[in-house]
Every structure is written in C-alpha cells, then in structure tokens.
C-alpha cells in the first residue's frame, strides 16, 4: 500500500495534480466497520470449572463505531465450530457496546447470553465471526494460544 501511495504521489506531483485522492484512499482503507468485534475474552480467569460465573467471564464485546443507532436483529456471532448466538430484535446504540457472554443470565442492552453450560471460545486458538442476518461477514477476530483476551 505504501509503495502505491508513494508512486501516486510522485506521478500526481509531476503533473501538478492535487495528492488528496491517494491519501484519502489510504485512510479510508483502514476505516473501522460500523459494527465490529471489539474484544474477545476467550480464557476466563482461573480454572475452567463450568460454573456460570466462569462461563460468563468468557465473552465477546461488539461495538457500534458510528454516531447512529444500528439494528443488528438477526445477526449472528459464531466460532469455528459453529456455536452460534443469534441476536433477537436488538438495536445497538450509537458508540455503544454489547457483551455476549457464554453462560446464563438475563438479557439487557449491555449484556446478552448464549445460555450454554460449557465454553464456546477455544483457549488454544479460535475465530469469532460476526455476520448480518443475510449471512454477510461483517468482522472476524482470530487468536492463538497466547494470552487470555484479544482486542480486535
């Protein structure tokens, strides 16, 4: 990408053209998705006992990066194996996050629950997929065995 921007800059400068287009293209390519996987806490603290507290310490944070409320009704969050959470009627407020926890709990605007009795995210490495109701992948986040959480 750097070589392309540099060549475009040199060519544009030689022709006396403005160089804003190549610079804008470089920055827009790095834009955040409107709705993204912000963090995955794939290894809950302590031993994996299967307690609801331990299960809910394993989670994924989804973030709305825009200044507009966004409906994510019917969207899914899944792992490589296919364990899937499907959002019911849900609007993620502008700039807000929602945490999808593995265990059981009462759904709120801040927390949602898989209601599983065992862990979803593999400590040894996995990938989280966020997809629209139509099945289009919006964002992914992958990790390996090091650490316990990943900011995406």
UniProtKB/TrEMBL annotation:
Q: Which residues form the signal peptide?
A: 1-31
Keywords of the record: Signal
InterPro entries according to UniProt: Lamin_tail_dom (IPR001322), Lamin_tail_dom_sf (IPR036415)
What the entry lists under Pfam families is as follows: LTD
The record's section on PROSITE patterns has:
LTD
| Protein name from the UniProt record | Lamin tail domain-containing protein
Q: Which residues form the LTD domain?
A: 26-145
Q: Which domain of life is it from?
A: Bacteria
């Amino acid at each position: 990408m750097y070589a392309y921007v540099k060549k475009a800059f040199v060519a544009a400068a030689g022709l006396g053209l403005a160089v804003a287009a190549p610079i804008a293209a470089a920055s827009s390519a790095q834009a955040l998705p409107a709705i993204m996987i912000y963090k995955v806490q794939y290894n809950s603290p302590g031993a994996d006992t299967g307690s609801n507290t331990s299960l809910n310490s394993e989670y994924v944070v989804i973030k709305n990066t825009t200044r507009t409320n966004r409906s994510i009704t019917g969207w899914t969050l899944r792992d490589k194996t296919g364990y899937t959470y499907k959002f019911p009627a849900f609007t993620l407020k502008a700039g807000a996050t929602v945490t999808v926890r593995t265990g059981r709990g009462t759904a709120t605007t801040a927390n949602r629950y898989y209601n599983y009795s065992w862990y979803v995210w593999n400590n040894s490495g996995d990938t989280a997929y966020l997809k629209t109701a139509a099945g289009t992948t919006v964002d992914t986040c992958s990790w390996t065995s090091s650490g316990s959480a990943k900011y995406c």
